[in-house]
């Protein structure tokens, strides 16, 4: 309301100034062919006075009747805009807070998922190592068992070979010489030759 009143007062002041200027410059303007500015004529003076009175009445009607309603509308609009801006600020703060909470929840979820993944990988690595140790132990036991069986088979084969060698030697000596050799002597010689070849 203050701004509108100031504007009306400024307009009234400008009008009074303009009328004063016209009154001062009227003789020159009348001389150049403008009879409406001849203030020596009572009709022109009356028109100027009535114009000032009408403008003053118009100003009073506007300032008392019209301007308070316009001022109320402008104040209501300003309050509504301020309220809307406040609501918008609050909504923006809530949205920023929600975004921050969402980002924090995302970071927490990622950290938890990474920790869970690390734990699962550690457990799998531990289980794989344990399984590998079990496999190595089983393979080692199987190799030892196989080596034992090979050694037993080798011993059995060697003993069978000594018997075959003894029998073969006896048969060869008997065939070549026609004499039956002593079995105990043949067995000693085969054993001696076998021990010598093993060394």
Automatic annotation (TrEMBL):
<keyword id="KW-1133">Transmembrane helix</keyword>
<keyword id="KW-0732">Signal</keyword>
<keyword id="KW-0812">Transmembrane</keyword>
<keyword id="KW-1003">Cell membrane</keyword>
<dbReference type="InterPro" id="IPR050059">
    <property type="entry name" value="ATP_synthase_B_chain"/>
</dbReference>
<feature type="signal peptide">
    <location>
        <begin position="1"/>
        <end position="31"/>
    </location>
</feature>
<dbReference type="GO" id="GO:0046961">
    <property type="term" value="F:proton-transporting ATPase activity, rotational mechanism"/>
</dbReference>
<protein>
    <recommendedName>
        <fullName>ATP synthase subunit b</fullName>
    </recommendedName>
</protein>
<dbReference type="GO" id="GO:0005886">
    <property type="term" value="C:plasma membrane"/>
</dbReference>
<dbReference type="GO" id="GO:0046933">
    <property type="term" value="F:proton-transporting ATP synthase activity, rotational mechanism"/>
</dbReference>
<dbReference type="GO" id="GO:0045259">
    <property type="term" value="C:proton-transporting ATP synthase complex"/>
</dbReference>
<comment type="function">
    <text>Component of the F(0) channel, it forms part of the peripheral stalk, linking F(1) to F(0). The b'-subunit is a diverged and duplicated form of b found in plants and photosynthetic bacteria.</text>
</comment>
<keyword id="KW-0375">Hydrogen ion transport</keyword>
<comment type="function">
    <text>F(1)F(0) ATP synthase produces ATP from ADP in the presence of a proton or sodium gradient. F-type ATPases consist of two structural domains, F(1) containing the extramembraneous catalytic core and F(0) containing the membrane proton channel, linked together by a central stalk and a peripheral stalk. During catalysis, ATP synthesis in the catalytic domain of F(1) is coupled via a rotary mechanism of the central stalk subunits to proton translocation.</text>
</comment>
<keyword id="KW-0138">CF(0)</keyword>
<keyword id="KW-0813">Transport</keyword>
<keyword id="KW-0175">Coiled coil</keyword>
<dbReference type="InterPro" id="IPR002146">
    <property type="entry name" value="ATP_synth_b/b'su_bac/chlpt"/>
</dbReference>
<keyword id="KW-0406">Ion transport</keyword>
<keyword id="KW-0472">Membrane</keyword>
<keyword id="KW-0066">ATP synthesis</keyword>
<dbReference type="GO" id="GO:0012505">
    <property type="term" value="C:endomembrane system"/>
</dbReference>
<dbReference type="Pfam" id="PF00430">
    <property type="entry name" value="ATP-synt_B"/>
</dbReference>
<feature type="transmembrane region" description="Helical">
    <location>
        <begin position="47"/>
        <end position="67"/>
    </location>
</feature>
<comment type="subunit">
    <text>F-type ATPases have 2 components, F(1) - the catalytic core - and F(0) - the membrane proton channel. F(1) has five subunits: alpha(3), beta(3), gamma(1), delta(1), epsilon(1). F(0) has three main subunits: a(1), b(2) and c(10-14). The alpha and beta chains form an alternating ring which encloses part of the gamma chain. F(1) is attached to F(0) by a central stalk formed by the gamma and epsilon chains, while a peripheral stalk is formed by the delta and b chains.</text>
</comment>
<comment type="similarity">
    <text>Belongs to the ATPase B chain family.</text>
</comment>
<feature type="coiled-coil region">
    <location>
        <begin position="85"/>
        <end position="163"/>
    </location>
</feature>
